[in-house]
């Protein structure tokens, strides 16, 4: 008989998600009873291994059994843990683990769905990466085009400035020769006019003895 302060035994104990080395045990607890944990007794049917799992301060109603032997028979029993002790063990539940070769076919549909979802995510990631790469390339192309345009404008301005600088020098250089010549001629004429003219009192040939008699004095 169950103790009045202890919770009742778990019900609807089932084993799901069978694999070669693991399985999931789930159960239900009657309503109105305070349960703070559970205890699971796991044993191989041949008696080679036995395991006791105890968990408190939890409201879980399921537990994953790990490190099971491949293609082996097991027996499990579940107990509820209350504030004043543990309940009686539930009915025995038998299950058999799968073979290693049976693991993939049992979950083939789920794995296919996971694979398709993974492929869709990869495609979405690839599409997003391509869009980002194209946007970056367009931005760089716009920057390069703007730089080339600014470079051409600066180059044209520099060439125009050089042309404007060369024009005044050529214009000033051409009239220098005639004006310079005129200035030099004016200066020469003025220099000649500046010298005082001495009156000629006699013939220049008077010093020559042969023609001295033919010359007469220029002044009375």
UniProtKB/TrEMBL annotation:
Q: Which domain of life is it from?
A: Eukaryota
Q: Where is the Fibronectin type-III domain?
A: 7-100
Q: Name one GO cellular component term.
A: plasma membrane
Q: Which GO terms describe its biological process?
A: negative regulation of inflammatory response
**Which spans does this entry mark as compositional bias, Basic and acidic residues?**
158-175
* Principal cellular location given in the protein's record: membrane
**Bilayer disposition of the protein:** Single-pass membrane protein
Recorded hits in PROSITE patterns, A to Z, give: FN3
Entry-linked Gene3D superfamilies: Immunoglobulins
Question: Keywords, A to Z?
Answer: Glycoprotein, Membrane, Secreted, Transmembrane, Transmembrane helix
Region (Disordered) residue spans: 158-183
The record lists the membrane-crossing segments as 130-148
- The keyword Metal-binding appears for this protein: no
Keyword field contains Transmembrane helix: yes
Query: Where does this protein reside within or beyond the cell?
Result: Membrane; Secreted
- Name the SMART domains for this protein: FN3
Q: What InterPro entries is this protein classified in? A: FN3_dom, FN3_sf, FNDC_type_III_4/5, Ig-like_fold
Record protein name field: FNDC4 protein
This chain's source organism reads Pampusana beccarii (Western bronze ground-dove)
* Lineage, highest ranks first: Eukaryota, Metazoa, Chordata, Craniata, Vertebrata
